[in-house]
């Protein structure tokens, strides 16, 4: 209800930025899936701060400890508890935040909602929580791999610099070749430069992540309130700093008429196929076997290094100036989180679909 | 799980386009709310097809019958069952759809997922199901009114014709003065003309609905997976033909740096206020007391009157040509549905928030 | 959460004793199940008041109207809405209850919890709500039949008159041969006489219903909080007037040592079997393929025809005397309700189990 | 769904008997509750094996480590992660269980359901999981204390030795004065002797735990499927070895007529009270302000030290003889678990009730 994600496959996460650690319980994970610890670590490394010159310099080694649910290298169908211990916490860096509300952060809303607040590094509202998502998402990816489903996200736009073509024009296997995680190496350089420059200004910048899901079988999703794209929108908008979601042709199709946007079915050597995929692989809320693709807009991170006016907890006007390290662009590290939340959603809906037939 | 919406306040809907009727059960609705049947009917009228020259000519009188949960004019805390009986069903109009998959409709995905399919008028996937949402939303609005929360949506863009300013520039009480439900009467005329022209071509067109929620208290929403804007995204993307969701400054902010987009707190005569509202009234997933606003993109309706190629259920290529009436633009009728889903979401989160403190 | 039952297969019911009707929505019902309306009606007849001299004389024709989810005689996977219209409501019989709290009824607790109360015939707390359960249970039985699972309940004890042997000693197909629904025709007569005599006194009497589930596959149930017998206990205790639940050997085993109660496994011509079934077909919360059996204790119905002291809503002492008709023993009509709730539970857990493997 | 308990307050537990540890996440715990670590430890000590001569000799120090959700000694409203690390694991003691199904254990059902199985000490099905419940229950008790709600359970029967009177006849504050946790010190000695003797025989014995909840406000519980006693039954039957649940007068009332069992209301110096409490504090599924009380039957533990016939995983007949230590009677240690599950249920329903009014 509060800190859980999913229906059948359900991640419940816990932990704060500067507490003992972040972790969670993955319930409903199918039995018999082989666990590849190296792969999970690799995914964590993709999310980790400090991985390149264009992300925050905060160092988090981030090693996951599985606590249950795996026996002799395979999942047992029992809940998978896990924890990533916090290290390198400079809690004192945050003493100045105890009684102050940072602009566009969750400080004020938390304080009013709960009455108490762990102010250190944003506490529960910190993006450090996404570590748990990446661990769970890595496990989901291992299960999806067995089903032939592959999920890839990439940076499609940073500020004004954007890819001109859609995902089909790029080789998505080249994403890890640059720190921006963009499949166009030229654009990647431009983006990287923009981020670096923004970092130098102590400022931040946003952009767009595109995600592509290949190999999804026909039939996932519910027709009314739990449409597959509604579940994906919910998943994406639960990621810190996400501000918009569009799937398929999305906003680009606003100038099209219905006769232009419709995806025409045809008999493709014995199987039913569509000439176009403006629907983004989902029709009537249910996957149709085509590629699923969507965009997620991320706003610039709220923590900037310049002085800003704000108020204290008692309402008096004051100013704030963040110290030390900041993350100039969340995009490169958002890529694995988008993938993780997609993997959790698709595996959940895959399992849910199995329960709809006798 | 499948046909339910909400956590505490939960709507479970039933019904198909050409079955006996559409209806639902609203569970968790608070006791003691006065029921204004005239208001509910008024809301249904706003959703009803055939209300003006620019919507579908299909006539649906759409009168709701409350079946339970109301006693002597007030809600009792017991589940509210309701039904809107179907009338004027031209099921025979759809005989030609029995073995054919309409492009960009749910026919194909339903057939594969369930094995059986009520093909008449789209069956369960028909937008007729939204009648249930409008009934439930009207009830939710009555409860929200007691709390001083007001929700207004309007048409902000049709095809290329769009409002240039944000919601604060318009008098939202004038929306019902034109059939497009647009607060700018000049633009409304242009939009209306475009829709009328598109209708003449047998084609369809999409656009954007903006929604504004005023009076929402601070503290609604969960910090991690059930952020208030994630719940709203989920709600909006569950509406037929919705393809994108953005909240607050959204895509317009992509060129801003963090220092520009941050909403600066200040002491406003004793209460904490912000100079701007790029956050769209939600920070860290929790409402902050400012106006909540967001956009929903709707694609052109898939049913067009020109002949289109497609396949039969057995996979053979064929063509299809819809007969009779079609809805050239879903926007005017989507407005009350967007409001209804917003009302259900906000009331649900209001009740959920009450359960978080001793 | 409030008026829903089940996880995957979920019944949400609505309706009050003297409102328009009682009904519900069955969500998650698998597609492709053939609907036998005659069977459903037959099940409703078994629950119906006025069916014999030993139940309440209140006449309720109780015909169900399916509103959705069935097309050309088969379920479609879409939610099944249904209603049983109320008839023969003597609401005026209950005018005297408006401001009075009947002893051991829900009048007082409802009034405090909700502030308002539909006092007519107990409103929502009336056993009339179980009509919805019997409809949904009948549908579940149709699905279970396809799976070879059969559920039979019977009256095992009324007051002091009880069956001496366990279910294996009786021919359960003879239950409908007497109005008590007891498989021992001699005992049935004694029970019937006791009930008839109690009725004459204007009083009521309780007893025990035993339920047997045959053909349940191995593997249904969750190991920890959602054990199969915990789900059954929850289901049974949700029936009006139920006061106790025991499964397997239950209380009879209190004098046994562990070495006596353990069910010894043996190789039974190639399949794993047990010599005894003290476990009642459930081990570690999961079905083991043996018969599942359990008892449910029902208290005497609270409505008696003699005058009783009580208080008014304002707390002043007064007396109450129910008028007209009463139900001397709930057992005969509880039998189909116990079966219905069992059927819903088993089908739900069957579907849930399907979602636990890739 | 699988390893979670509760609606608003939700415990999701993880861990196996011989894995790294057992723990969980408590979500929905209200903010601002003071945490008393000493009290939590005390509760764990009451559950701990090896605490007296009449329980298993297995030593488990059982110290809980809170991982999140508490800041400066108070809960923050964020999820409370916790772990109790396993120690003193003699995994090799269980090597002989790898390919054998212990009678009346979960070995066989797990193997069929999941395909894989952590056989060490019963893995997930081990009662060691209840450690997590006691931690969560202790936290719930701290919140309930603020509300004036007090929960006490005690051993009421062991084999044939039973308390003759109901809970009102005893001083429940004396329960911890004997290792059986029985409020009658004489009976406690007899019970203790019986258990000790049973232990000497390598056998086990069951009995009854009674639980009493005082101070519960009027109005907790839902009227239909989620009646308060149904939730308690579900909670109790989720405890290992529980076989029956009865509340209020329960089976003792089977010989009463309705006119005898009804609880008569009267004006008790201005408040509404009842002369008797056969309803066990719950009417129509909702608490009525009287004491809530119920019994839970526990069967003899399945692990006995004598040789028993059984089968191997491949179905061949064999014998099994447990080694070393066993728990002759689960009752003394079940007492704190019954209290814990009651506390979680009551707090959950308290919070849920808050969400039912505007």
UniProtKB/TrEMBL annotation, chains A, B, C, D:
A GO term, aspect molecular function: chorismate synthase activity
Reaction(s) the record says it catalyses: 5-O-(1-carboxyvinyl)-3-phosphoshikimate = chorismate + phosphate
Pathway: Metabolic intermediate biosynthesis; chorismate biosynthesis; chorismate from D-erythrose 4-phosphate and phosphoenolpyruvate: step 7/7
EC number(s) reported in the record: 4.2.3.5
InterPro entries on file: Chorismate_synth (IPR000453), Chorismate_synth_AroC_sf (IPR035904), Chorismate_synthase_CS (IPR020541)
CDD domains: Chorismate_synthase (cd07304)
Cofactor note: Reduced FMN (FMNH(2)).
Pfam families in UniProt: Chorismate_synt
GO CC list: cytosol
One GO BP: aromatic amino acid family biosynthetic process
Keywords, alphabetical: Amino-acid biosynthesis, Aromatic amino acid biosynthesis, FAD, Flavoprotein, FMN, Lyase, NADP
Residue positions binding NADP(+): 47
Positions contributing to FMN binding: 124-126, 240-241, 284, 299-303, 325
Cofactor(s) listed: FMNH2
Assembly behavior: Homotetramer.
Its job: This reaction introduces a second double bond into the aromatic ring system.
Protein name (Swiss-Prot/TrEMBL): Chorismate synthase
Source organism phylogeny: Bacteria, Pseudomonadati, Bacteroidota, Bacteroidia, Bacteroidales
GN (gene name): aroC
